[in-house]
Each structure stands twice: as C-alpha cells, then as structure tokens.
Design goal:
alpha/beta, 38% helix, 2 domains, Rossmann fold, six-stranded mixed β-sheet, VC0802-like
Length: 394
C-alpha cells in the first residue's frame, strides 16, 4: 500500500498548542482535497494520505502549496515483520535505475528489536543479494532509501519533497491585506498566510481613472494567492471620490501622504466590520516616497490597528524572486495602473510633517466620504478555480 507521508516541521515546536496546529492543518488539507477520494489520518508526529494512483500528481501539487507542511513523500507501507520490510524495500528499489545506494533507517518504535544500524546492514544485504550490478556508497549514493519503523507500521521511501513550511492558515486570526496590482502586495499576502494568518483582500479602485483591466488583474492575483488557503474575500472600495477631493483641495506634494492616510482609516473600519485584527501591506522601507520611515510614521498615525509589513526589509530583487516563485509576477507587471500610480505627483514629500498633513485634510469632509465608501464596498469570494462570482463585476 502507498501513502503520502507528511512531516510537520515547525509545528512540532508548539508544545501544548500542537494539537490545535495539527488539527488546523488536517482541516486545510481535507478542504483542499475534498474533490478526491482520499483517507487522511493524523497523529502528533505525522499525517498520511491514502490516494488513488491516478490522482497522485494533482494531489502532490495541491499539498506542495499548503502551509504547515515541512516535507512530504510517497511511501510504501508494510508491517514491522522483517520479511515484509525486506520485500517492500526490494519492491521500491527494483523500480528504480541506480548504481549506488545507501539505506538510512530510523526506529521510533523501540519495541522493534533490530537497531537502526543493524537494520541498515540487513536491508542493504537484501538489495545486494538481489542485484549484483549495484553497490553501497554511504557518502554520495545515487539512491538514498529511507526506512521509518513506527509504532503503527513501517514506511519505505526515497524521494522527499519540501513543503511550503510555516504555519497552517487559520492558526492566526484574520488580517486585511491592502492588495494593489503591483508586485509587492501579493508577496506580502503570501508571507502573511505562511505565518498562519487568514486574509481578506482590499482593493482601492479609482474608476474611471483606473480600468476594468486593473480590477481583473487584482482578481487574478487574488486567485493565485487563494491556492495557499481555502478562499479569499476581496473587498473592492470605490476610492474615486476621496482621491478626487484630495487632488482638488490639497497641496500636490502631500497628496500621496494624505491618500495613504485615508486608506489606513478605511482599512481600520473594514477590519472592524469584517473581524480583522491587523492590516497587512507590501511596504518596503525606502522603496517609494510613502515608504520612508518618516512617511510611514505620519501615515500610520491615523490608526491604532497593528500594521504588518512582511517585506519591510526586503529589497526589490528579493521581492521579485518570490513573486516569480508564487506565479504572481507576470500578472503584476501587466500594464494596468492602480489608484496609487495614476495620480503620483512629480515631487511627493519624502519627509512629511504631521501638522501639515492634518491641515491639508481639514480642507475637505473626508469622514463622510470614507463612510460612504465603506457602505458601498463590493465583496466577492475568490478561490483558485471558480470564476462564476466575478461575472457581475467584470
């Protein structure tokens, strides 16, 4: 019998909360594999998935994107009878093409009488006896065969795949992600989810200054991010009236600062409306005028909500590399501008003063505009496969 054997990694460090993390991971895997005929069994050390052979490639692709998994492998399962173990390791080895090999055993079941080093010799001898064309190489083998003797059964495998790591999504409360069409914010959302944070996304739209294609771009980014979780609620905010008032009433070098302050005010209200406990964004220190430390301080002062900046100390090339890995980069560079880039002034303030920002904001009634924008928020639920709910928006 074959199973997918899942190892937890960092989840093993959670002490008394370990079961909560494992149970959340189990629920996430079960949800993602709901369309497949699988049997998932969990315990405190590992998780196994029985599967249909025809579904293996699809299931592995899904598992590779579930946070909380340190590694996974396809393993042959047998009893702890020595003859069964010998037959199973021959079954695995005989399907492979190799010249040198090594056996690496681990005996977590201490009732099993044969120690690991002795078991390595016995199983290595079994392979050599059945294949005169191979030899043992303990330093640099072409094939490393692993044997785990556990209390319930024995697992034999050779290829170990790295999981996405981190914590299962849902082990932390919800946060709201400021999702633009750029490169940075999808990466920030990915990294927040990797720490177990469930996210909703918020897109600030400025039609007709921005296009429907810009909205489609954000929806596509949301869909890419949703493969790492169950689904993502995308809240679309009509930011046009606020943005137009800012650029009509405020000095041009402070427009970006005030625009970001308005966004943070809206984000705080949306967090309270949708049960979020933090704001997540893609800001990186010094990357643009609104992301200098002085600007961040002035902008951040409008909210008491925690603001999580996963990319704060990353450079652009590092961010782009992650974006390519998670397949958001090619979408992000599509030439459709968002509201943050449409009205960028020639010389935005890089060291804004709080008293000037407050004075500029007093020139228009932003509170009523913010409340109206929140009342008119359009929300859609996005997952990696279903496009039907977008039809009324595009």
């Amino acid at each position: 019998m074959k199973v997918i054997l899942i190892k937890y990694g960092e989840l093993n460090t959670k002490g008394d909360n370990r079961n909560f993390f494992i149970n959340t991971l189990y629920d996430n895997i079960r949800n993602k594999l709901k369309d497949y005929n699988v049997d998932i069994v969990k315990d405190r050390a590992k998780m196994t998935i029985k599967f249909n052979d025809n579904d293996l490639d699809k299931i592995e692709n899904i598992i590779s994107k579930i946070f909380g998994i340190h590694s996974y492998t396809v393993a042959e399962v047998c009893s702890d009878n020595l003859d069964d173990i010998k037959n199973t390791i021959l079954k695995v080895a005989n399907k492979l093409d190799y010249k040198t090999f090594k056996i690496e055993s681990k005996r977590s079941n201490k009732n099993f009488k044969i120690h690991s080093m002795e078991l390595n010799k016995i199983l290595g001898g079994t392979i050599l006896k059945n294949n005169s064309n191979v030899s043992v190489d303990v330093h640099n083998p072409e094939l490393l065969l692993r044997v785990e003797v556990r209390i319930d059964r024995v697992y034999v495998y050779y290829k170990v795949c790295a999981g996405s790591g981190g914590y299962p999504v849902g082990t932390q409360p919800k946060a709201l992600l400021m999702l633009s069409g750029g490169i940075d914010s999808p990466v920030a959302g990915y990294m927040a989810m990797k720490r177990g944070v469930k996210i909703d996304a918020v897109y600030f739209e400025a039609r007709p200054h921005t296009s429907l294609e810009a909205r489609e771009k954000v929806i596509s980014l949301c869909r890419k991010l949703s493969v790492y979780t169950t689904s993502i609620n995308l809240h679309i905010v009509n930011f046009t009236p606020i943005q137009e008032e800012i650029y009509k009433n405020c000095r041009s070098d402070y427009c970006i600062t005030i625009m970001r302050r308005m966004m943070y005010r809206i984000m705080e209200k949306l967090c309270k409306k949708y049960n979020g406990v933090a704001i997540v964004n893609g800001e990186s220190i010094g990357q643009v005028a609104s992301q200098t430390l002085t600007s961040m301080n002035v902008i951040n002062s409008v909210t008491n909500m925690p603001v999580i900046r996963p990319l704060a100390c990353f450079d652009k090339l590092e961010i782009m590399e992650i974006a390519r890995e998670i397949e958001t980069y090619e979408i992000s560079i599509l030439p459709y501008e968002d509201c943050c880039t449409v009205f960028v002034p020639r010389h935005p303030a890089i060291n804004p003063k709080i008293n000037i920002a407050l004075n500029e904001e007093s020139l228009f009634d932003y509170e009523s505009l913010i409340n109206k924008a929140i009342d008119e928020v359009n929300t859609i639920k996005i997952d990696s496969e279903d496009d039907r709910e977008f039809d009324n928006l595009l």
